[in-house]
TrEMBL record:
Keywords: Methyltransferase, Transferase. The keyword Methyltransferase applies. This is Class I SAM-dependent methyltransferase. It comes from Streptomyces synnematoformans. GO terms for molecular function: methyltransferase activity. InterPro entries: Methyltransf_11 (IPR013216), Methyltransf_Superfamily (IPR050508), SAM-dependent_MTases_sf (IPR029063). The keyword Methyltransferase applies. One of its GO terms (biological process) is methylation.
Length: 263
């Protein structure tokens, strides 16, 4: 599937669905005040995980958030003293990022940019760190191109930490209940998941990569892989998110977080 078609579908889908998405998940993600940086539906919080660096190390760092959505992560980073830039393909998501979606003016205490993650509008080596919580990477046809671009705009030694749906989930129906526990498709089938409108145009697309594919993309993109974090479902957490649920979360991984360092 051509990258352009995926990009058009994603932009349209997130513009149309940003309001519902933020209504449903915005609170879990930290709300308008952005008190949290959550890596995925398991609720792993950067305040505890410190995958971008130890407490106190973010102050003054230039950080790019890729596929930022309403930029809750960037808000948390700014509160830690970092200098974030939040980038997203969807204008409506970015309106939520500046608190303008409700009709007010709204501002964000850091730059917001509408752009494609595969063509970053920054000079080489502009950032110390880059991060993405389910932003862009699971949705693009060519994630290797995104990773190469992130490498280009990072200084050597800079960290790039991104989370995606755990590749194992591809083989299971996207259902939170017991029906989501039986293998129904091949883990090795890279055919994208596509929803179409009545004219056959793609309106929602997700692209699958196996775990090995993702590791190869990271290494070929010029990174060392420092860690691959598979958050376990915490006992206290009873909130479902689509196909992510306590039932499935206790049995199979739902999120993969790649902790990389620019070589
Ligand atoms: C699941 S949201 C993640 C955002 C935020 N971290 C969250 O958890 O809500 C995915 C985001 O990726 C953005 N996105 C999808 N494709 C993109 C692309 N090619 N370039 C930049 N952003 C993209 C979408 O617009 C959307 O805001």
């Amino acid at each position: 599937m051509p990258a352009r078609e995926t990009r058009q579908a994603s932009r349209g889908w997130w513009d149309r669905n940003a309001d519902d998405y933020q209504r449903e998940h915005g609170g879990f993600l930290g709300g308008a005040v952005g008190a949290r940086f959550v890596w995925g539906p398991e609720g792993l919080d950067e305040a505890e995980a410190r995958l971008l660096g130890p407490a106190g190390s973010l102050a003054g760092r230039a950080v790019l958030e890729v596929g930022a959505g309403a930029a809750q992560c960037a808000r948390w980073l700014a509160a830690e003293g970092a200098r974030p830039v939040a980038l997203d393909l969807s204008y409506r998501q970015l309106q939520h990022a500046r608190g303008a979606a409700a009709g007010g003016g709204g501002t964000a205490p850091f730059p917001l940019l509408q752009a494609d993650a595969a063509a970053l509008p920054f000079r080489d080596g502009a950032f110390d760190l880059a991060c993405s919580a389910y932003g862009a990477v699971p949705f693009v046809a060519d994630p290797a191109a995104v990773i190469r671009e992130v490498r280009r705009v990072l200084r050597p030694g800079g960290r790039w930490v991104f989370s995606v749906t755990h590749p194992v989930r591809w083989a299971f129906p996207d259902e939170p209940g017991p029906e989501g526990l039986s293998v129904a498709a091949s883990y090795f089938d890279r055919t994208p998941y596509v929803e179409q409108d009545e004219d056959g145009r793609a309106v929602y697309v997700e692209h699958h990569r196996t775990l090995g594919d993702r590791v190869r993309d990271v290494v070929a993109g010029g990174f060392r892989l420092l860690d691959l974090v598979e958050p376990e479902w915490p006992e206290w957490h009873d909130q479902e998110w689509g196909g992510w649920s306590p039932l499935r979360g206790h049995l199979i991984p739902g999120t993969a977080i790649f902790v990389c360092e620019a070589a």
